Amino acid sequence: MSDLNSRPYQRPPMTRGLDPQRVNWLWRLVCEVAGLDANDVLAALHAMQVPVDHQRVASWLASDRDDNYFPLTVAEMERNLRSVVALRKVLADAAAEAHGAEEVDTASHYAPDLGPLQVENAASA
Fold first, then answer.
1. DSSP state of 8
2. 96 vs 89: CA distance, rounded Å
3. Cα separations in angstroms, 42 against 5, 66, 74, 90
4. Residues 20, 74: contact at Cβ < 8 Å?
5. pTM (2 decimals)?
6. Using CA atoms, how far apart are residues 10 and 2, in angstroms rounded to an integer?
7. pLDDT band, very low/low/confident/very high, at 1 (cuts 50, 70, 90)
8. What does the DSSP 8-state code read for residue 26?
9. Most C-beta atoms within 10 A of its C-beta, which of 6, 15, 33, 47?
């Protein structure tokens, strides 16, 4: 077995022309890898105050041979990805904050003799 870290990296050959106005094929691949569907993307875009409907988001996932196909640009794809990342960060922060609140509640449950001030200090330490 060879060590792949020591071999030089080689770019794969281009198998298709890249039209920056029609990157639906790349968007579909990104969504498949990330486990995103139209509802996830719609929620992320709405969280960023982007006015878009489900039909448009679904059209970006359609093949260019489908009736409901609408071309997606590189700029739209970047905005979509940034929106998904931002929403995931907000949700992760909220979950971490909720988890922190659960730890405080757990501490007060297992040490009922601690007053609220002591529990708050213990949580902030």
1. P
2. 10
3. 39, 20, 17, 16
4. yes
5. 0.71
6. 16
7. low
8. H
9. 47
